[in-house]
Amino acid sequence: MPSIEKHLNKSMERTGKEYREIHEWIDEPNHKHERHDITKILEFGRMFEEKYGEEGAQEYIQHIHDDLNGKFGHLLEDVEKMVKDTLTYFGAKQS
Ligand SMILES: [Zn+2]
Question: Alpha-carbon distance 17 to 55, whole Å?
């Protein structure tokens, strides 16, 4: 998962603002799971829209999206390494 700093930088690049409160709220350790719950995206999105306007809501959704991308990117690397290690274990040549 990208660190808070990465989220802040991305928001800055996109909007010229950090939206630090949004990213800290989403990644708050005690609530991390429910706040990354994709089924809550509409509910939380509306909440952020009320508080920070449409741009804030977009940055919230972007945060979830970037986390998923980070996760899947990482997952893919893990699987590739696992396959490689397994091939090596069985003495197969790398193609
Ligand atoms: Zn996150």
Answer: 10
Report pLDDT digits (tens) over 32-81: 999 999 899 999 999 999 999 999 999 999 999 999 888 877 777 788 88
For residue 85, the CA-to-ligand 1 centroid distance in Å is: 30
Q: Ligand 1 centre and the CA of 14: distance in Å?
A: 17
Predicted structure pTM score:
0.76
* Sequence-distant (≥ 6) Cβ neighbours of residue 58 within 8 angstroms: none
Going from the C-alpha of 42 to that of each of 29, 63, 66, the distances in angstroms are 21, 14, 17
- DSSP string for 22-37: HHHHHT-GGGHHHHT-
- Tokens, residue 82: 């696992």
